[in-house]
Amino acid sequence: MNLSHGKLPNSILEKIFSKINTFESDQRVLQGPDIGEDTAHISFGSKTLIVKTDPITFVSDNFEWYSLHVNANDIVTSGAIPKWFLATILLPIGITEKKILDIFKKLNHAAKEINVTIVGGHTEITLGLSQPIICGTMLGEIEASKALTTSNANVGDDIIMYGYAGIEGTSILADKSQKTLLIQGVEKNVINKAKKFIKNPGISIIKPALAAASTGLVTSMHDVTEGGICTALNEISKATKNGVKVYQDKIPILKETSNICNKINLDPLGLISSGALLITTSKKNSSKLINNLLNKGYKIKKIGEITSNSETLFINSYGEKTPIKKFYKDEIVRFFERS
Q1: Distance CA 253, CA 186 (A)
Q2: What's the angle, vertex CA 259, arms to CA 254 and CA 263, rounded to 5?
Q3: For residue 328, what are the domain limits?
Q4: Count of Cβ atoms closer than 10 Å to residue 3 Cβ
Q5: How many domains does the chain have?
Q6: pLDDT tens by residue, 118-128
Q7: How far apart are alpha carbons 267 and 50 in whole angstroms?
Q8: Which CATH number belongs to the domain containing residue 76 in this structure?
Q9: Four-residue CA torsion sign, 283, 287, 293, 297
Q10: Is there a domain that residue 2 lies in?
Q11: pLDDT digits (tens, 9 = 90+) for 150-163
């Protein structure tokens, strides 16, 4: 199988994970690699260390800020506070000292913004690169009994969503493909507004995730990234070994995202969606959690529930059921491949 840009397919990941004896070889590993799990969990007595690593490959501008926030997003889905960061930075031949120093100035500024300490990493100039690549590793910690995993979600739990589908992908498209969007009939003011989605509404879920975790009402949280809402819902199903039922018209999508995706024939539900967060909670706690977060200024709504079968289903406004699509590559990858 010849693979294209993006995350490895789950079928290959499962083969890789089956050969990693994480839990058997080290009893302090509480959560190792698994489909649908955002982080690794390692026991340190009364505390659990939460670990995540993620590269930044879709953007070249402001990638330093991106790396801090994308990695922190995964840490907070466990309920943990992001604390320490390491960066492996690969640089193209010919880069100047001034540019290198500027990268680290921005990296340090981004870390201070979310109160994270840079504790190490590696930097080198590498053959075959046209732009810098950063792979960040974020460490966080939480009281041992409070750490969340995606698999904690239970049958009957409500699925609640914070944020909007596809805002990250929308912003990248507006920034990198303005000319194409204009040719396809997207208005300039729509493109300009979409470019700002990275900061407003924003791709960070740190504050709403920690606010949700602090209530003690959450059973799981899952960050929505590559493959969009559809992939995140399928990952929840995979991690819990249960089904999901989601009311498609309840999923929040900004009009600019809909406009751009319609013009270039992309599905916003398969578009990279950092800034969106899926939360599960028991039905008896659902209204209490939603009201708590709404009162704190976080836009949040119920979109579905965890079911006892293995089906992942969308239900439209007419009550018709369709399987939630499996995206083997993100919609933004499909767009760039055909451009």
Answers
A1: 17
A2: 150
A3: 150-338
A4: 11
A5: 2
A6: 999 999 999 99
A7: 33
A8: 3.30.1330.10
A9: positive
A10: no
A11: 999 999 999 999 99
